[in-house]
Specification:
This protein is α+β, with helices and mostly antiparallel strands and about 325 residues long. The protein has helices spanning about 10-25, 90-105, 115-125, 125-135, 150-155, 235-240, 255-270, 300-315, and strands spanning about 1-5, 30, 40-45, 55-60, 65, 70-75, 110-115, 145, 165, 170-175, 180-185, 185-190, 205, 215-220, 225-230, 250, 275-280, 285-290. The chain has eight helices and 18 strands. It is globular.
């Protein structure tokens, strides 16, 4: 039985899990769905005598039988690579067919997913995830999602210090220089900085929380791993992703009510894995600000090995 890892060629996070599974002599098959259809092919059948698809994925160097897959680790696959000679119209049609056929075939596999893409997609919508977290007992800052500049200014004006955190609802923005997306960092916003451009799309504004530190909490099934993140620069105090070199980390315990809320959130979305960011104030109150069902964990040294082992345990122990 094989663990199928779906990700692009360069993925240091997936590399950690694959190396751990290799150490255990667990069969692993890594492939990038983006290679379909140029260098990856498929053939699968279903009929009256079968309840699931039977067939194989055929890469340049190795094949994998669909019935041999015990679990799937879904990380960050690339978009499908289509033939360069296609017209734009044909390419759009071929891409839609590839997603419906190839991705649909993979998504139908009756095995453990970490996580299934459809569950990731729903949990990745901040309006959905924040509401589910609040219903599960986790505290979230006051948040406004709007394209109305007047509503945005009114919201920020009513906050303590008249300061809000502007946070992108997604995670990336198209780059001007190449095809790779770039991150949009959290920024502080005051009422006078909000202009008519807010009307052009949805924007998310959150109450600014004066934090003592942040906590990255990573959940793998029922296991919780948490570490305090202490910022060492002005930039990292606003968004720690802007200056990793200034950060210090300290593993910490998870309060019982936070653990209960996290498990409820995972149950709600059917997740086996999730990464969450909390802001902790001087009184020790935890406020949830970010939910990422496919977040990284390797940047926290003390938790790198334990989380890797937990993911390998989960993927190895799964049965079809």
């Amino acid at each position: 039985m094989t663990v199928l890892v779906l990700t692009r060629p360069q993925d240091a996070t997936a590399d950690l899990v694959i190396a751990e599974l290799n150490e255990r002599s667990v069969p692993v098959h890594r492939l990038d769905p983006g290679d379909f259809p140029e260098s990856l092919s498929m053939a699968a059948r279903i009929g009256p005598d079968h309840t699931s698809w039977e067939g194989a994925l055929r890469g340049q160097h190795r094949d994998v039988s669909l019935t041999d897959v015990r679990s799937v680790y879904y990380r960050r696959p690339a978009a499908h690579h289509l033939h360069p000679d296609m017209s734009e119209q044909d390419a759009r049609w071929a891409d839609a067919e590839a997603r419906a056929g190839f991705s649909g075939l993979l998504y139908s596999l009756p095995c453990l997913w970490v996580n299934h893409p459809n569950r990731n997609a729903l949990a990745a919508y901040p309006p959905v995830a924040l509401a589910a977290a609040a219903r599960g007992g986790l505290s979230v800052p006051r948040t406004l999602i709007t394209n109305d500049p007047d509503q945005a200014r009114e919201f920020v004006s009513a906050l303590p210090g008249q300061i809000a955190a502007y946070k992108a609802l997604g995670t990336t923005y198209p780059s001007d220089r190449d095809d790779r997306p770039r991150a949009l960092w959290t920024t502080q916003v005051q009422p006078g900085e909000i202009d008519h451009s807010v009307a052009l799309t949805a924007h998310q504004f959150q109450e600014w929380v004066d934090k003592a530190y942040e906590v990255r909490l990573t959940a793998v099934a029922h296991n919780l791993f948490a570490a305090e993140i202490h910022a060492g620069s002005d930039a990292s105090r606003i968004d720690f992703r802007t200056d990793y070199d200034s950060l210090t980390f300290k593993p910490c315990d998870v309060p019982e009510h936070i653990a209960g809320g996290v498990h409820m959130l995972m149950f709600t979305f059917g997740l086996q894995y999730v990464a969450l960011d909390f802001l902790v104030n001087s009184e020790g109150d935890w406020r949830l600000v970010d939910i990422n069902p496919n977040g990284q964990w390797g940047f926290i040294p003390d938790l790198r090995a334990p989380i890797t082992r937990a993911l390998a345990d989960l993927l190895e122990s799964a049965h079809t």
